[in-house]
Predict the 3D structure of the following.
Amino acid sequence: MSRSTFYITTPIYYPSDNLHIGHAYTTVAADAVARFKRLMGYDVYFLTGADEHGQKIERAAQAKGKKPKEYVDEIVLGFKDLWARLLVDYSDFIRTTEERHRLVVQQIFERLYEQGDIYKAAYEGWYCTPCETFWTLRQLVEGNCPDCGRPVELLQEESYFFRLSKYAARLLAHIQEHPDFIQPVSRRNEMVNFIKSGLEDLCVSRTTFSWGIPVPFNPRHVVYVWVDALTNYISALGYARVNDALFKKYWPADVHLVGKDIVRFHTIIWPIILMAAGVELPKRVVGHGWLLLDGGKMSKSKGNVVDPHQLIDRYGADAVRYYLLRELPFGADGSYSEGNLISRINSDLANDLGNLLHRTLTVLSKFGGGVVGPPGVPEETDRELIELARDLPGRVALLVDNLELSEALGVVWQLVNRANKYLDETAPWNLGKDPVKRDRFNTVMYNVLESYRFITVLLAPFMPGFPDRVWPQLGIAARPELHSFASLTWGRFPPGVSVERGTPLFPRIETEK
Ligand code: MSP
């Protein structure tokens, strides 16, 4: 039987500048989900990439005295380097400047034109370059862009338009019939209201700059950057190409993970493009919140960005990933501060998670020669711990499925905390001294080691570097069959292996200067 597939995407980022910690959040979240699904045995395809066209990028390149392609090539190398350093394991990286992408965008544009969904008309509108969006006078807020608040320019051009209005009713019906299509519910309601207030046809070409994909039948125009960008999710799979095996296998996407600012593009423009092109719609679009800095949006154009490289240098990729994934509850904003990051490391990682292993291995080395014997008959307090561990894989899997990653980590920490408390309650350092209590000592040690195996397997997708540091300490580095999701049935930890105390997994960060 073939394995179930799972296709997850991140937005493709603008290479107008280097990425900041807010972008890293989206990609790390998608990576954690992709890894979790792989761990569960799914055949996963995880796509990320770069959105390289548009006036903003053309201008950024000009400002640096470079040709656009030369400029984006450099920045994209930086993207890939950042993802490697953050242990992001994508299946493919799509660049909108690639030929394989251009062909698909042009083909779709042409098809929609031929079937009358795209038409030519004169146009005058207020254009926000940073947002690459036209607004009507009525939509402006105090004369500025309603999205970002920056000044807009009045542009007049002959343009191609896409009949969004024609598909509005069908899109609404789809949203009603597929309650999971837009998540969280608050964003879904927003989108429904937006569509009900009436969709205007969308201007989908530009003549004021040339850094884009030419409209195939009128190359004076380039394709509007959002139509270009959104198409990446299928062009990367070889849609409409001779070799479309990936498209056949993985489309429709299971999840498009996006920030809340771009939910509208993904739940209105993208589905309508697909409907018009006769392609199935993605199953879910999930909009996450923002990582705020000093209460406001972190943005390259405001200059208040946090460089992920510095954080990785200081704290390591696993800790940075953990912090990001723990800090933003599903769909909500969170605020970034290095102080919070340090307290998460010290309390959750060093104190709770790291110490649990360290204490256990110290006691086992001291009183058991570093070897755990087979467990005896469980007592009430053991049963409580074991039941919590047994239920954990299912509970975490469900939360990950819902993209509730912070909540999923919270559930893993229930076991971390319970196991620490269990050690306090059972005090194996006393049991170990008494030969009559050897059986009880083994039982306690066994239960904590087995709990730690569960914890390590379940944390692997969130902190991919973590298990490789734990397995040798638990003495099961050479037992990959005990590292899998499927192995999480209680009692598989092998008695008799030698544990090996290592250096602390997460050293405390000293804050006083
Ligand atoms: N190029 C478009 C996406 C096209 S997808 C077909 C774009 N690029 S972006 O580089 O500006 O942003 C990409 C993603 O980063 C968005 O989902 C955005 O929400 C996310 N983030 C940017 N700043 C962020 C935070 N401060 N916090 C969380 N996410 C943030 O939009």
Remarks:
- Residues 11-14, 22-23, 25-26, 51, 229-230, 232, 258-259, 261-262, 290-291, 297-298 surround 5'-O-[(L-methionyl)-sulphamoyl]adenosine (CB under 6 Å).
- The longest strand covers residues 118-128.
